[in-house]
């Protein structure tokens, strides 16, 4: 019977994919919420950095940290080695801080919450109770929960607007809050870990983020604790001309476990918007972290106008022996993606895994992949990358596997598959391999294929329309990665795969 | 009822006429066989009826129960009841056989304005039908046609046919690549679907498949036309004497 149940679930998922494709237009999250916002003046300088720090009620050490980062940033140049091209960004023509005005005072009940903010959460598919909590309704934590348990931290433009299930998490000893709150309430943890995986001067965007990050999520799982629920952050850019710079810091102490989900959407606009996030994960001895992302920032319209520039630095440091990290990403959005979630395998027998689906349609450009840096003995890594290009898009896999002299008997396996739809798109694979000891093993397999007319005709002869047929074939191609996602995300991801390829054939 | 009148078809990419005036009517409940030498246009006929790209109809018509098939998209023809059992079933990596079947069944039901089959009803039906074709649970889970043997692929086609319950079944050289046992199994599957509301067009090189699927009418096709029509005996005549005699007689 177990097998039967499993089949049923999977069947259901596929049907939902198909329904979603039928019902949904091109970019489902393209609406914008008209909410009164409070902005800092345009541009970035030490005063803006101080202002952001002040708005977050940060201690002096944090302000200094930011200012030092800003100082570094002014001496750095934008990287240009990735296979992406876009007009020069005027960093002084952006807003670096925006927050909904209604956040200034806490509402007492749902009636007092700005209904537009609530409508936003509803459109994002966040359940009512979590909406209440996110809207900051006092006492909402005690209202009865509905069904699923995923703690949500929502970041609306620059500000974390609320975190759900705080109490239950607290009982388990888990800290899950906005990073601004963590800086105020848990300075000893933040001081110890912030910037320890992605140093302030790591790269141009990470340094800018260090100076101006406005909010983000913070997670600490104490020794031996298995986090009782999935943790999730929902990022949304709403305001125009506003850069979003969130900072996420996750610490899994010895023998702990957490699964963390991240989702992103943005309104449909003609002008490009900047997103430069930093995610740092610290994994101690015997601990395990799963980090899943479904990235659906607005990709720009079919003529390549607008969209999000997504320049993200994500890195996990497997510090302890036998620690383990798994990155899973589904990248369907953004006009330009520059993102390489990486694993530093420092502890002996530590393991890093990277599963990725990157879809680029119309004029999207994606340059994404991973870095597996093997420092410890007997470390293992696995990379499964599925790149799909359609329309006039360019999709590049760029990955580094590095075996250091002390990483004896380590292993890497890389599988890198590209799928092309149509004849105007491109797929590129750029693997970098460095092996500095003679007992390690690195395997790399790569394939490139096209969605084949025979496959589409076969599906259509059985009654599926062209878009359903493409969705089915592409979901089949991505299966290895979709299976690595938590169930709820897998459903969303399958739908996204289908939706983001609409209009890519015929 | 499938009615093909004066059908002329050329390749889209080059000036090559493949069908040169095919006339054929398959009544409901009847099994028609089309035999003929290589290159006579048999497979082209099956592709044109099901709507594959690459062909241009230059004259003539094809209707199913009075509806113009040639105007429809392939999926509309499928929903109208046209089913093609492929000579070379296509592999779709990563897509479970069961997922594929259910997506197809529900797509057709939706197109016809019917309710979708629930997961439980679907499973029940698929299991019953798979069993009679000796298709086990493992084969239902594996990706569509990937790593299937020749016999498994053809049985899978018949399973799809059984699930989709088409009005008009076109079997394109379903016997190719099958050993005797596999052919019997496939033929049994087809015979189980014979029904007074359903027509069959069985395309084959050899008479042996017709030992197992007994046709009502046999046509001989050559050089893009049907040159001779007769009863089941005509297939035996081909088996014994080859095509040369018949073609000589016609010319």
> Which ranges of chain A are low-confidence, i.e. pLDDT below 50, for 5 or more consecutive residues?
1-26, 106-110, 135-148
Q: Order of strands in the sheet with the most strands of chain B? A: 6-9-10-3-11-12
Helical/strand content category of chain B: alpha/beta
End-to-end separation of chain B in angstroms reads 30 Å
Report on the architecture of this protein.
The complex is a heterodimer of chains A (506) and B (251). With 506 residues, chain A is of the alpha/beta class. Chain A has one domain (2-128, 198-452). Chain A has 13 helices and 23 strands. Chain A has helices spanning 2-23, 46-55, 60-74, 115-123, 128-134, 166-172, 179-185, 187-193, 204-212, 453-461, 466-477, 479-482, 487-500; strands at 37-39, 98-100, 150-156, 159-163, 175-178, 217-221, 230-236, 247-252, 257-265, 272-275, 278-283, 288-296, 307-318, 324-331, 336-339, 342-345, 351-360, 365-374, 380-389, 394-403, 411-420, 426-435, 441-450. In chain A, strands 5, 6, 8, 10, 11, 13, 15, 16, 18, 20 and 22 form an 11-stranded mixed β-sheet that branches. A 10-stranded mixed β-sheet of chain A has the order 4-3-7-9-12-14-17-19-21-23. A two-stranded antiparallel ribbon of chain A has the order 1-2. In chain A, strand 3 and strand 4 (159-163) form a beta hairpin. In chain A, helix 1 runs parallel beside helix 13 (487-500), helix 3 runs antiparallel to helix 9 and helix 10 crosses helix 11. In chain B, 41% of the residues lie in helices and 28% in strands. Chain B is an alpha/beta fold and 251 residues long. The mean pLDDT of chain B is 92. Chain B has helices at 42-50, 74-80, 97-111, 119-132, 137-141, 150-164, 180-193, 208-212, 232-250, and strands spanning 2-11, 17-26, 31-35, 55-64, 67-68, 82-85, 92-96, 143-144, 168-172, 199-204, 217-222, 225-230. Chain B contains 9 helices and 12 strands. Chains A and B meet through helix 1, helix 10 and helix 11 of A and helix 2, strand 7, helix 3 and helix 4 of B.
